[in-house]
Amino acid sequence: TWKWVVGPMFLYLCERLVRFWRSQQKVVITKVVIHPFKTIELQMMKKGFKMEVGQYIFVKCPAVSKLEWHPFTLTSAPEEDYFSIHVRIVGDWTEGLFNACGCDKQEFQEAWKMPKIAVDGPFGTASEDVFSYETVMLVGAGIGVTPFASVLKSVWYKYCHDATNLKLKKIYFYWLCRDTHAFEWFADLLQSLEAQMQERNNADFLSYNIYLTGWDETQATHFVVHHEEEKDVITGLKQKTLYGRPNWENEFKTIAERHPGSRIGVFLCGPEGLADTLNKQSISNSEADPRGVHFIFNKENF
User: Fold this and answer.
1) In the listed set 123, 138, 171, which residue is the last one of a domain according to the structure?
2) Residues 154, 259 within the same domain
3) Mean pLDDT of residues grouped by 10 in the chain (302 residues)?
4) Which of 11, 135, 148, 176 could pair covalently with 141 via S-S, beta carbons 3.0-4.6 A apart?
5) Which residues belong to any copy of the FAD-binding FR-type domain (predicted)?
6) What's residue 219's pLDDT?
7) How crowded is the C-beta side of 13, counted as CA atoms within 13 Å?
8) 175 lies in which domain range?
9) How far is 130 from 266, CA to CA, in rounded Å?
10) CATH no. for residue 226?
């Protein structure tokens, strides 16, 4: 028995030593941005740090807890000279980080007063393959929308730099959330992308649909009254917010008709129930003929 135990234990100890070594590398918080509804953005720099779109890191703040590591999806793009995470204040640890960064104070926080941060990673996810397809479906549910902030930023940087070499030609983005107020920072990103794409006369490059799943009669009435306005009253986007849940069968069939003979990447960051639905739709809407349309399903779960 001991021969079978020694090997895995040795590998585990090596992994812990690597994580300890990484945690001792210096991380500098260059900027802290306070977003609405108690969400903060930490922009950081670390020597030798390299990332890809959609990856995540483990973060430890010794000023809050000397032992706790928490995973956060990177919301910055590889083309940017920093890496960032968005932290929503929903518990004791995030509240402690919020206070340690001086976000609970009115006065400006000096850089040297920022808490020490340890970072382990980055670690890969399915979202890294998004540039392997000409057409992709991105589906984010709730907090699962964060990996696609990195993806959409990177797409825009690549598009501006050299659009002719970009294999990705069309993005269908779906965002399912109970309340968009919790992710206003992401709506701001979509507004920026929408405006920039229109300036370059390529507004069709990104098609997006925002679904509010937790709505009541008051919201529905408000929606009806303001439906004819140019911009959505909730998100400020030209695309109107939809209520309820998408009809995935219709969505897949429509996209299959628009892109015959294509390999379409389906990327999800959300719950298992939604993953099962999208996986079944990807299989049922893919053709047996190798020259036909094929949906390739990729997922990650929180």
Assistant:
1) 123
2) yes
3) 89 87 83 81 88 88 88 87 87 87 76 82 80 87 80 80 74 81 72 75 77 63 52 53 79 88 86 87 85 85 62
4) 176
5) 19-129
6) 54
7) 6
8) 128-299
9) 9
10) 3.40.50.80
As a whole number of angstroms, the distance between CA 9 and CA 12 comes to: 5
Of 116, 114, 138, 108, the C-alpha closest to 126 is: 138
CATH number assigned to the domain comprising residue 99: 2.40.30.10
Number of domains the chain is built from: 2
Dist. CA 190–CA 175, nearest whole Å: 11
Are 136 and 257 in the same domain? yes
Measured CA to CA, the distance from residue 255 to residue 293 in angstroms comes to: 10
User: Both 221 and 240 in a single domain?
Assistant: yes
Give the pLDDT of residue 12. Answer: 92
- Domain boundary among the residues 82, 101, 123 is at 123
Instruction: Map tokens 């996986």 to a residue.
Output: 279
Give buried/exposed letters for 277-291 (b at 16+ CB in 10 A, else e).
bbbebbeebbeeeee
